[in-house]
Design brief:
CATH topology of one domain: Cytochrome Bc1 Complex, Chain D, domain 2
Helix content: 55-70%
Low-confidence stretches: none
Largest sheet: 2 strands, antiparallel
Mean pLDDT: 85
Radius of gyration: 54 Å
CATH superfamily of one domain: Cytochrome c-like domain
Structural class: mainly alpha
Distance between the termini: 176 Å
Number of helices: 7
Shape: rod-shaped
CATH architecture of one domain: Orthogonal Bundle
Order of helices and strands: HHEEHHHEHHE
CATH class of one domain: Mainly Alpha
Number of strands: 4
């Protein structure tokens, strides 16, 4: 075998080796590409599956609603289904929701605290005691306001009032305290008739006001100054004057001296 033949065989060997190496590299490249494509497809499928799972999962609010109500999905109702049934109607062994039990325990704690505060240690007043305290405070405040009022009239300067509230207040007091002696219509009973023009102690606004304020010694007419303020006594006297001339049935006969308004100085 000559040298040229040996050279040709070596060249052919190198060429064959090179082709095999190129083919191997191409196979590796194709395999790597295929793996990348498969990886991309798998990641895409997994992302879609995750999105579907997230969409299927209830929201935070829905989860809290399920938790606080201890709700069971329809698929899990078989686990809490009771054995007995009535006419084919079966019952679920549902427990009370946690929020309801929480409120129930809270009321127990509140009741214990309430008993300790109001009945054991008595550190706070009950409703009736609180009402009495508030009424006493209101009465004291009212009395203070009355004491602070300065009246610009007395029995020598008082005049008739025509204010509806004052007249109504006078009528209410008259019916509750004076009608027992003078009757509700003023016609007189144990006390004299107040509807005519005859008066034992003088008629007119000033005399009536003075009798209401000081009373009449030796009679059942007591002084009301300690119970009524000047405005209230003026309202009462003004109401008594409205009874003039009403002539109620069954009124007592005239008693005292005839009094005319123009005689009042």
């Amino acid at each position: 075998m000559d040298n040229s033949s040996l050279f040709s065989q070596e060249v052919l060997l190198y060429i064959t080796f090179g082709l095999v190496l190129i083919v191997a590299l191409l196979v590796l490249v194709v395999a790597f590409y295929v793996l990348q494509v498969m990886k991309t497809l798998l990641e895409k499928n997994r992302t879609e599956a995750q999105q579907l799972a997230e969409q299927a999962q209830p929201s935070w609010f829905a989860q809290q609603w399920m938790k606080w109500n201890a709700l069971k999905p329809l698929a899990d109702e078989e686990t809490i289904l009771l054995d007995h049934d009535f006419d084919g109607i079966q019952e679920l062994d549902n427990h009370l929701p946690p929020w309801w039990k929480g409120l129930f325990y809270l009321t127990i704690v509140y009741a214990v605290v309430y008993i300790l505060v109001f009945h054991v240690f008595e550190s706070s007043p009950l409703q009736e005691e609180e009402y009495a305290i508030e009424m006493a405070e209101a009465a004291a405040e009212k009395a203070k306001r009355v004491e602070d009022v300065v009246y610009d009239f007395d029995e020598t300067t008082v005049t008739v009032t025509t204010e509806p509230e004052a007249i109504a207040s006078g009528m209410e007091f008259f019916n509750g305290n004076c009608a027992i002696c003078h009757k509700a219509d003023g016609g007189g009973l144990a006390g004299p008739n107040l509807t005519d023009e005859y008066w034992r102690n003088g008629g007119g606004m000033k005399n009536i006001y003075k009798v209401i304020k000081n009373g009449v010694q030796g009679t059942a007419m007591i002084p009301w100054e300690s119970r009524l303020n000047p405005d209230q006594m003026r309202g009462l006297a003004s109401y008594v004057l409205t009874l003039q001339g009403t002539n109620p049935p069954g009124a007592l006969p005239p008693d005292g001296e005839l009094y005319k308004e123009e005689e009042e100085q």
